């Protein structure tokens, strides 16, 4: 079954803005998938619906075969979300941020410690595990956000413009962490308005504009046509 299957998705916000006008797409397990498009295209709305934060107007969304409309809790357990804004407590240490997050999801303390070490190493933060987060660099803070989302071992990691407004060095560090996560088997979907980012990271993509998919397919095939 696909990691994500979206069929004829429509979203009209209160007030009448038609953010999505019949979007269909499929993301295979293990894929690294980009939703590329300009501001206002509908990317955040699509991601919001997939992660059950925004209600759809019509259409169907399935995560690993689970319909989000009929089994929202099961669907939410399959995904990890990396919010755009850094929202952890700056006065906590990375290790505590990760284990507290795991605790919130009912993961036993011993298991949480094992996972935290693994995620901090993967995000190249193990050396900073017990450092006050406030003192971490911008790139480290961003990678900590990714590490935290991985604590629940999601099958699909979703990121909404993960590198918006960050400089190229920070972006490259985040890309490296994301590549490792994907190489270890987690499906990743990210939204971006940087073609360079989609090109560097993703195998498949959809280009979205004015609430519609205008192009869809393997990155390489698409680049050949641009
Ligand atoms: P993107 O993420 O590609 O920038 P969005 O999904 O944020 O696009 O927005 C798509 C359209 O929906 C835009 O016209 C935006 O102004 C509108 N929109 C987004 N969120 C809301 C909301 N909560 N209420 C009303 N309109 C919204
Ligand atoms: P993004 O850059 O992630 O698409 P935006 O800056 O467009 O986000 O929107 C920020 C927040 O404002 C989001 O929660 C979005 O849903 C909401 N929003 C965006 N456009 C509108 C709108 N036209 N009316 C009401 N809320 C909106």
UniProtKB/TrEMBL annotation:
<keyword id="KW-0547">Nucleotide-binding</keyword>
<keyword id="KW-0813">Transport</keyword>
<keyword id="KW-0067">ATP-binding</keyword>
<feature type="domain" description="ABC transporter">
    <location>
        <begin position="4"/>
        <end position="226"/>
    </location>
</feature>
<protein>
    <submittedName>
        <fullName>ABC transporter ATP-binding protein</fullName>
    </submittedName>
</protein>
<dbReference type="GO" id="GO:0005524">
    <property type="term" value="F:ATP binding"/>
</dbReference>
């Amino acid at each position: 079954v696909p990691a994500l299957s979206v069929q004829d998705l429509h979203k009209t916000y209160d007030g009448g803005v038609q953010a999505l006008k019949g979007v269909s797409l499929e993301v295979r397990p293990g894929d690294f998938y980009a939703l590329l498009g300009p501001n206002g295209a509908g990317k955040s709305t699509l991601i919001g619906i997939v992660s059950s934060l925004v209600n759809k107007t019509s259409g169907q969304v399935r995560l690993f075969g689970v319909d989000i409309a009929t089994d929202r809790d099961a669907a939410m357990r399959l995904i990890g979300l990396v919010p755009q804004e850094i929202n952890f407590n700056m006065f906590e240490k990375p290790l505590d941020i990760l284990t507290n997050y795991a605790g919130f999801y009912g993961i036993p303390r011993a298991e949480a410690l094992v996972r935290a070490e693994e995620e901090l190493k993967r995000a190249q933060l193990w050396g900073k595990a017990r450092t006050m987060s406030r003192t971490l660099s911008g790139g480290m803070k961003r990678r900590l956000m990714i590490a935290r989302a991985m604590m629940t071992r999601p099958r699909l990691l979703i990121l909404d413009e993960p590198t918006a407004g960050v400089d190229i060095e920070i972006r490259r560090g985040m890309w490296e962490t994301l590549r490792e996560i994907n190489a270890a088997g987690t499906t990743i979907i990210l939204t971006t308005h940087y073609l360079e980012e989609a090109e560097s990271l993703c195998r498949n993509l959809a280009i979205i504009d004015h609430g519609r998919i205008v192009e869809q397919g393997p990155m390489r095939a698409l680049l050949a046509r641009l």
